[in-house]
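Narrative summary of target 7.
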Amino acid sequence: MVKFLVKTLINAAAIWVAALLINGIHLQKASWGHQALTVVLVALVFGVVNFFVKPLVKLFSLPLFILTLGLITFVINALMLWLTSWASGKLNLDFHVDGFVPALLGSLIISIIAWALHMVVRDDD
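Modeled conformation, tokenized:
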């Protein structure tokens, strides 16, 4: 349970930074507490999307994965962030990604920041 909570908080921090840096990723301008709650809920949605949808997409894109030597992963990550934006909209969360290019840039930032934070906060496993 602690591992799940830490991963969710790391993803939340990474999503928040991506929303601050990328022009096409929006969090509603609200109080700090409202934004923090929104970003944690979006991180939970992001985790669910990555847990259930991403493996299926990777399986079906296996030929493209081999053909592009893994570069299709960037596109898949961007699509997962875009799908998270859509699901967040359906859940009335104040998070929106404008299109594919902001999703691609955001997914790169999220990946880099999440990787760096996972290096700092080590798992005991």
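The chain has a mean pLDDT of 92.
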